[in-house]
């Protein structure tokens, strides 16, 4: 039975996620639907890329992934369907795909939207569902859409590198208010080169070692570790790191302060100095 994951920025407050699932089950009743999250922050591409990338890599080859994030950044004429390392990904042509994959997809086609149809989430869902059904019934990805598409590319949010430092951005705060930074373990070790270090962030807080588990420090103490996705995480054992340390990732209210801010995402930074 094929697997289909669902990720969106829709939230759970109204009928829409239920309606999306209903449409999917009408068109592809044999698929097993798996929710990743529907609480992606609006317009937060780095957060969406982090969540999707971290989840997708754990699924078996042949899994389908439907990503309904910022579908209507511009008036859409098509959606995208990609095949990459055995995974099938459907999403809008808004640059998120390349941020998730951190490269150009191996195969990608555009799925045309009927100009006579209202361009809403339910209609787009049916377009994806038909394409998923065709793939499951033996069509190649090239047979489901137009392979001549030139897709919108956005680069993933990368840390800033220097000889003696690496500076990352807070891209996600989890349900325990642990703070996730866009510094991977590989990037950290490559820059570290075996040297000692200090992780410095707001209020001149300092951490100088990497823990394996939250219990490596006393209750209420701060720590840093690499989480299950391989990213640097700042936490407090049985505490609220984001709140107690005054850390935050992208906040929607920042977008409302000025026209200048409306075109940008703002992230607090975490800097690691090597000695």
Tags for this model:
275 residues; alpha+beta; Rossmann fold; Elongation Factor Tu (Ef-tu), domain 3; 2 domains; 6-stranded mixed sheet; 6 helices; 21% helix
Write up what this structure looks like:
The chain is an alpha+beta fold and 275 residues long. It contains six helices and 14 strands. Strands 7, 8, 9, 10, 11, 12, 13 and 14 form an eight-stranded antiparallel β-sheet that branches. The protein starts with a strand and ends with a strand.
CATH superfamily label of the largest domain: S-adenosyl-l-methionine hydroxide adenosyltransferase, N-terminal
What is the H/E order? EHEHEEEHEHEEEHEEEEHE
Described by strand count, sense and barrel closure, the largest sheet is:
8 strands, antiparallel
Q: Give the proportion of residues in helices.
A: 10-25%
Question: Care to give the gist of this entry?
Answer:
This protein is of the alpha+beta class. The protein contains 6 helices and 14 strands. The chain is elongated.
Map the helices and strands.
Elements: E1 3-8, H1 16-27, E2 32-37, H2 45-56, E3 64-68, E4 78-84, E5 87-92, H3 96-101, E6 107-112, H4 121-136, E7 160-162, E8 165-173, E9 179-184, H5 185-192, E10 197-201, E11 205-207, E12 222-226, E13 231-236, H6 241-244, E14 269-274
Parallel strand pairs: 1-2, 1-3, 3-5
Antiparallel strand pairs: 4-5, 4-6, 7-8, 8-9, 8-14, 9-13, 10-11, 10-14, 12-13
Helix pairs in contact: 1-4
């Amino acid at each position: 039975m094929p697997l289909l994951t669902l990720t969106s920025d829709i939230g759970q407050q109204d009928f829409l996620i239920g309606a999306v699932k209903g449409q999917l089950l009408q068109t592809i009743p044999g698929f097993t639907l798996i929710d990743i999250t529907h609480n992606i922050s609006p317009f937060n591409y780095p957060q969406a890329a982090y969540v999707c990338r971290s989840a997708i890599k754990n699924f078996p080859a042949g899994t389908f992934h439907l990503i309904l994030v910022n579908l209507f950044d511009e008036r859409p004429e098509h959606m995208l369907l990609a095949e990459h390392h055995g995974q099938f990904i459907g999403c809008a042509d808004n640059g998120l795909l390349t941020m998730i994959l951190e490269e150009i997809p191996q195969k990608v086609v555009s799925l045309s939207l009927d100009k006579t149809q209202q361009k809403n989430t339910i209609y787009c869902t049916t377009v994806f569902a038909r394409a998923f059904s065709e793939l499951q019934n033996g069509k190649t990805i090239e047979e489901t859409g137009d392979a001549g598409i030139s897709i919108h590319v956005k680069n993933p949010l990368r840390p800033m590198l220097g000889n003696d430092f690496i500076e990352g951005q807070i891209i996600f705060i989890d349900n325990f208010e642990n703070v996730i930074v866009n510094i991977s373990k590989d990037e950290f070790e490559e820059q570290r080169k075996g040297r000692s270090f200090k992780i410095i962030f707001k209020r001149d807080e300092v951490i100088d070692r990497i823990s394996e588990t939250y219990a490596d420090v006393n209750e209420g103490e701060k720590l840093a570790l690499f989480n299950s996705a391989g990213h640097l995480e700042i936490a407090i054992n049985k505490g609220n790191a984001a709140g107690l340390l005054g850390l935050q990732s992208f906040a929607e209210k920042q977008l409302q302060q000025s026209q200048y801010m409306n075109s940008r995402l703002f992230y607090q930074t975490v800097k690691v100095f090597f000695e």
